[in-house]
Specification:
This protein is of the alpha/beta class and about 325 residues long. Helix content is about 40%, strand content about 20%. The relative contact order is 0.13.
């Protein structure tokens, strides 16, 4: 078991990972109980927001300490000394830090001599998708993998989770358009590429449980997969029809030709790039039998249960 763990960021994924690490580490003997630290911007630690203060107070009550640093304003060389005191570093910053952030964090972890690094790769299978898909949408993620594989000193684990389950239902993504739900009009369910195409999804809460198990007990390295569910657009439409009523759901196919034309008209639109990648259907889904949560016996939330718990989705 690691003795000191640093989680970089406490957002949508960082918080569940921190809570799960605290919960699971509390079962260890006092002698082997790891220290937990979260890296946050100084402005976050000193935020006047009441909700943020409550969030930070909850983390403190779990025995989690804070490390103040501004990732975006720091170089890899400046971050390395901050990482050096931890044997395990988990990046939960996502893409909010801007281009180059994930590579910078990986280089800082390697320069610091961190024993085990978990990069922000909580998404699709970038090895299969490759660096050139959709105009290089995931080039930096592929570069991070190259940097980690090119060295032997630091162990690393990449956790491929698929899409966050909630994002599958976000109107901005376009698969489920709930903008007119509750007004007597139909909800539009769209397939990207084809109705048979599939997508793997996992909730952040489930990712937190799985990552905690991997960090504190399982310790496997390399590329690890999770899957709260692997679902076709056809099955998603069926679930929504059961949820809202067949008469309230309208199906629409966005094939690859249509989505590629949309991207050509708006080549810098990240959401349209994502849609093309998912319409191509490569590296965005995998069998659940390959998932660490299945292998480790960790219960997760599938799309049907997620819908049942979210009465607001179509309201």
């Amino acid at each position: 078991m690691p003795t000191s763990i640093l989680v970089v960021g406490a957002g949508e994924l960082g918080l569940p990972i921190l809570h799960s690490l605290a919960r699971l580490s509390s079962t260890a003997s006092p002698a082997s109980h790891p220290t937990l630290t979260v890296l946050l911007r100084p402005s976050t630690i000193n935020s006047p927001s009441a909700s943020k203060a409550l969030e930070l107070s909850t983390l403190r009550s779990l025995g989690i300490t804070f490390l103040a640093a501004d990732i975006s304003a720091s170089t890899a060389a400046e971050l390395a000394p901050r990482f050096r005191n931890y044997d395990t570093v988990i990046s939960c910053t996502g893409f909010s830090g801007g281009p180059g952030t994930q590579r910078k964090l990986a280089e800082a972890a390697l320069e610091a001599g961190v024993k085990h690094y978990y990069p922000w790769q909580f998404g699709v299978d970038y090895d299969i998708i490759g660096p050139d898909a959709a105009g290089g949408l995931f080039r930096e993620q592929c570069e991070v993998r190259q940097v980690l594989r090119a060295q032997q000193k630091t162990k690393w684990t990449i956790v491929s989770t698929g899409m966050f389950t909630s994002f599958l239902l976000e109107p901005v993504f376009g698969v489920v358009d709930t903008a007119t739900a509750g007004t007597g009009k139909k909800v539009v369910v769209r397939a990207l590429g084809s109705w048979e195409n599939r997508v793997t999804v996992t909730t952040p809460e489930d990712i937190g449980k799985i990552v905690a198990e991997l960090v504190l007990r399982d310790r496997r390295t390399g590329v690890v997969f999770t899957a709260g569910d692997t679902i076709s657009y056809e099955h998603l439409a069926h679930l929504l029809e059961n949820h809202a009523g067949t008469d309230m759901v309208q199906r629409q196919l966005w094939d690859l030709e249509y989505l590629s034309d949309e991207l050509r008209r708006d080549p810098d639109n990240a959401i349209k790039k994502y849609r093309v990648v998912f319409a191509e259907g490569k590296g965005v889904s995998w069998e659940q039998a390959l998932a660490a949560n299945v292998q480790l016996g960790i219960a997760t939330t599938n799309v049907e249960r997620f819908l049942s718990s979210r009465a607001d989705v179509l309201s």
